[in-house]
Amino acid sequence: MMPKAAGELRDRIRIDQDEGTTVNAIGDAVPDWQPLVVGTDDGMIWANVAPMSAGEQWRRIQMNAEANWKVTIRHRTDINPRMRVVFGPRVMEIRGITNPDMKRRFLELACEELVVAPLNAAAPPPAAGSPIGLLFLITRAN
User: Fold this and answer.
1) pLDDT band at residue 3, thresholds of 50, 70 and 90?
2) Are the beta carbons of 41 and 72 closer than 8 angstroms?
3) Distance of alpha carbon 36 from alpha carbon 118, whole angstroms
4) What pLDDT shows up at residue 68?
5) From the CB of residue 20, how many other CB atoms can be counted at a distance below 10 Å?
6) 79 touches 123 (CB < 8 A)
7) Taking the chain, what is the end-to-end CA distance rounded to the nearest angstrom?
8) Model pTM?
9) Which CATH class is domain 6-141?
10) Smallest Cα–Cα separation from 87: which of 13, 8, 10?
11) Which residues make beta-bridge pairs with 93?
12) Is residue 60 helix, strand or coil?
């Protein structure tokens, strides 16, 4: 449900934009994400973050646009799908942007959460025939 007033935006999020690439500690080129809004609480803005309903998710899948979160913010003209939303520990890619009431009061961002699986030291080693298994064996041999 879209907020009826800005006072219903009770979550703090940060919208990041890709400023090009940088080199990490092991020499890989990685995106250089920087906050879109600078000068206010480390780029934090007010939003309403909610999981999408099953119907909303189904409609997005039909349009080949996976999304599982709906983030509502005050209307802005500088948001695009190449940006991402950071909500606490969650990082979400923006998959779609709508102006729900066509009055330029709010924007709804359809977002997909990026999930990074944690390393599990207790997990069994991968099969020897798989590419991951070969890498595991090479690493274990050294």
Assistant:
1) low
2) no
3) 28
4) 86
5) 8
6) no
7) 55
8) 0.68
9) mainly beta
10) 13
11) 84, 112
12) helix
